[in-house]
Amino acid sequence: MSTWTDVDPHIAPELGRSALVVIDTQRDFVDGGASPVPGTTQVLPAIATLLQAYREAGRPIVHIVRLYDGDDVDLPRRNLIASGAPIVRPHTPGSQIVPDLLPPGAPELDPEVLLDGAAQLLGAQEWAIWKPRWGAFHRTALDEHLRGLDVTTIVLAGCNYPNCPRATAYGGSERDYRVLVVADAISGVRPDHLEEAGRIGVLAATTAVVTSELAATVAIAG
Cβ-count burial of 169 within 10 angstroms (0-12 exposed, 13-18 middle, 19+ buried)? Predict the structure, then answer.
């Protein structure tokens, strides 16, 4: 029986039509990076488990990344970036996705492609997209990309819930995506965050539940 049998059918995740959206898991944001975000290194194993499950299921994966170039930066960070802080600068090692999260043979991030607004192919059914602000839908091709893949559900993981994953959850909800937060695969999550998000129909689950439900969906489809 599905975990979401008793959930409102308008918001219940459809994992067979889902995409995994992994946010800001770049070297500068983990331990040892230029701007480490507390808790992000600790959730990397859970994110890696989700990624493997989605690859095995043949479902889409989108890595959302930051690249700070020029003054196209969130207002609270403009002074910091203008001062020359070496955070996710194009062509730097710190801007790259944590290697353990990449598919075999993935290329390095291409700032020219990403900053131009295109999705960069990293592997089979796996892409990177740059976002200029908190939410992954703001001024990006993410919505168009997901619609083209017939995605109805976004499954969120990454860094750091109070900022970018939360903005992405709200952006997805207002575009009528079913939104599922993987609470143990996102840094910075608190119970009150999940309660608040639940008021707009965003659901939460663990990595174990998502991977199990995804595998069951694939088995039924097969």
Answer: buried
